[in-house]
Amino acid sequence: MISKWNYLPLTTEEQKLETELASKYANCPPISELLVQRGITSVEEAEQFFHPSLKDMHDPFLMPDMDKAVNRLNKAMGSKEKIMVFGDYDVDGTTAVALVYKYLQNFYSNIEYYIPTRYDEGYGISTKTIDEAHASGVKLIIILDCGIKAIEEIKYAASLGIDFIICDHHVPDDELPPAVAILNPKLEGSTYPCPHLSGCGVGFKFMQAFARSNDIEENDLDNMLDLAAVSIAADIVPMVGENRIMAYWGLKRLNSNPNVGLRAIIKICQLSNREITISDVIFKIGPRINASGRMQSGREAVELLVSRDFADAYQRAKNIDQYNKDRKELDKRITEEANAIIEKRTHLLNDKKSIVIYNKDWHKGIIGIVASRLTELYYKPSVVLTLSNGLATGSSRSVQGFDVYSAIDASRDLLENFGGHTYAVGLSLKEENIPEFTRRFEEYVSKNILPSQLTPQLDIDTYLTFSEITPEFLGLLRRFNPFGPGNQKPVFCSRGVTDFGTSKLVGKHLEHIKLELVDNTSGKVFNGIAFNMSEYFDHIHSGKPFDICYTIDENKHQSALGTIQLQVKEIRISNN
Question: How many other β-carbons are positioned within 10 Å of the β-carbon of residue 575?
Answer without folding.
Answer: 9
